[in-house]
Amino acid sequence: MTISEKLLDELLKDYKNPEDLLGKNGIMQELKKRLIERAMEAEMSGHLGYEKHALEGRNKQNSRNGHSQKKVISNDTQIEIAVPRDRDGDFEPQIVQKHQRRFDGFDEKIISMYSHGMTTRDIQYHLKDMYNVDVSPTLISEVTDAVIDDVHAWQNRPLERVYPILFLDCVVVKCREDKQIRNKSVFLALAVTMEGKKELLGMWMANNEGAKFWLHVVTELKNRGVEDIFIACVDGLKGFPEAINSVFPQTKVQLCIVHMVRNSLKYVPYKNKKAVSADLKKVYNAATVDEAETMLEEFAHKWDTQYPTINKQWRNHWENVIPFFDFPQDIRKAIYTTNAIESINRSLRKALKTRGALPNDDAVFKLLYLALRNISRRWTLPIRDWKAALNQFAIHFEGRFEL
Questions:
Q1: Which value, to the nearest 10 degrees, does the dihedral of the CA atoms of residues 347, 188, 182, 177 take?
Q2: What are the distances in angstroms from CA 111 to CA 118, 145, 307?
Q3: First to last CA, the chain
C-alpha cells in the first residue's frame, strides 16, 4: 500500500520531538489503536450486511450494540481498544479474536527471554520497563508451558539411519521432587551427521546412571530410526559399552577426549592452562599407542609435582582412551576438534545460573530445550576438515558406509 505525502503531513503536523511519534501516547500508538478499531468496524459492517448509520440497517433483526473495552498486548506496548458488539452476540472479529490478549510475536519475545536464562520475574520487569506492559507471572508460565508440546515432538521425531559420531554429555540441574531439592542429571545425545553437521538427538533425565538407563537411551534411538553408529564418545562409561553394543554391536565406544582434557584442566590455575593443554595435546595427537604412552610419561615427569591427579586420571582411564588410536588422523580430528560440547555446556550454564531449583521435570526440559534450540541455530556449517574425515570413514567402515 502506498501512503500519500498528504496523509503523512497530516499525521505529523503537530510533531515536535521523537516522543510525539514513538512515545507511549505518540502518533504510532494512536494510529495502531485507531487502525485496529477501524478494521473491527469494517468487519462488523460485513457481519451485519450494512454500514454504520446506513438506512438499510433499519428494522434489521440484528444491529450494533455499543462497544466493550479490551486490553491487547502488542510487540511494543499495551493497547486499549473498543470492540464493537452486536445484539445477537455472535460477532467474532478476526483482527483481534475473542479471548485473544496478545498479538502474534509477543509470545515469541517471552520465549526468547526465557530461553536466555531470564526468570519469570526478570521477564515481568523487563516488559514493564521496556514496553510499559503489565504481564502476570501466570501469563508468562502459560506461554512458556506451551513449549512442552514442542519438546515431546522433538524428542520423538524420526532420526537418520546412520550417524558417524555420537557424543553423550551430561548437565546437572537442581529440581524439586517430593518437597526436596535434588540434583538430577540430564543426558544429551549430540551426533554428527553424514554431512558433517551437528545434531542433538534428544535428552533424558536420570537419578542414577547405569546399564539399564543407557539401554533405554540407545533402544529409543534405534526405535526412532537409527540403524548404525560408527563411534560413540562418552564421558562416563558406567554401563554404556555393554548397553550400546547390545543394540549396536559394531559401534566403537571411546572415552571422549574433549571431556578428558576439560576434566584435567579443572586442577590447573589459569596461568598454566595453556601449557598443560599443549602437553596433553601431544598425548592425544600421538601417531600410535606407544608414542602416546611416551608423551604421557613426559607429561607426568613435567607436571606431577604440581598436578599429580591429571596423570593418574589418564592412567586410570587409559584402556578407554586407546581405542582412539585405531582410527586414522582425520577421524581423530573429527572426534576431538569439535567444540560443540563446550558450546553446549557454556550456554546451558548461562541459562541455569540465574535459577534456583526448577519446580519439576517439565520445567527442566522446557528450559534446556529452548536453550539448546538457540545453540543449534548456530550450527550452519560442517565441522572442520569433514570431507577428509568422511573419506576415511568410507575406508575404515567399509560395508556400513553409504555415499
A1: 110
A2: 10, 10, 44
A3: 50
pLDDT per position as a tens digit, 11-64: 677 777 777 676 667 777 777 777 677 777 877 788 888 788 777 767 777 888
Query: Are residues 165 and 111 both part of a single domain?
Result: no
CA nearest neighbour of 76 among 120, 40, 24: 24
Q: Which three cell numbers stand for residue 358?
A: 526448577
Q: Which long-range contacts (CB under 8 A, 24 or more apart) does 14-17 make?
A: none
**Total count of domains within the chain:** 3
Average pLDDT, the chain: 81
How far apart are the C-alpha atoms of 172 and 168, rounded to whole Å? 14
- 35 with 164, same domain: the answer is no
Distances (CA, A) of 390 to 95, 191, 192, 330: 52, 14, 11, 8
Task: Write the CB contacts of 258 (distance below 8 Å, at least 6 apart in sequence).
Answer: 167, 233, 336, 338, 339, 341, 342
Return the amino acid letter for 72: V
Among the listed residues 219, 221, 215, 185, the one whose alpha carbon sits nearest the alpha carbon of residue 200: 221
Q: Are residues 294 and 194 in the same domain?
A: yes
Q: Give the domain extent around 251.
A: 152-396
